[in-house]
Amino acid sequence: MIPRRCILGVPVCITIFFLQGSKAVAVSPPDAPMGSGLWLCQPAPRCGDQVYDPLQHCCSDDTILPLNRTRQCGPNCTFWPCLELCCPESFGPKRFVVKLKVLGTQSQCPSSPISRICPS
User: Fold this and answer.
1) Which residues form a coiled coil (predicted)?
2) Cβ neighbours of residue 110 under 8 Å, at least 6 residues apart?
């Protein structure tokens, strides 16, 4: 007679054998960016009501932008809205200053560090 422990152990061993050979499949939600897998233990970044990939895009004023997008800051200057702010100076003659966005905060012109002063 075969002991009960051996009889019960065989299905467990077979199940473990099949699980080790199988590949896990990551499923993305329908509104997730292409090429994204399942992001475990982290909420997906959102811009308004859309999910975006922070390695390729940023959220600026509830708009998803590519990281390399540039915009005009004053008449003679460009800046990256994903990484910088365009700040008009209110004192003296009208000039523009590009300031760095501080990661993890709601960046604003008065409190952000200066990146560069735009030429007049």
Assistant:
1) none
2) none
Domain residue ranges of the chain, discontinuous segments joined by +: 70-119
CA 63 → CA 46, 59, 81, 82, 83, distances in Å? 10, 5, 11, 11, 14
Could you tell me which residues come within 8 angstroms of residue 48 by beta carbon, excluding any fewer than 6 positions away?
A: 59, 62
Span 60-98, pLDDT tens digits: 888 999 999 999 999 889 999 999 999 998 777 788 999
Residue pair 47/63 in contact (Cβ under 8 Å)? The answer is yes
Claim: this prediction has a pTM higher than 0.85: no
Contact 65, 79 (CB under 8 A): no
DSSP for 10-67? Answer: HHHHHHHHHHHHSPP-----TTSPTT----TTSPPPEETTEE--TTTEEEETTEEEET
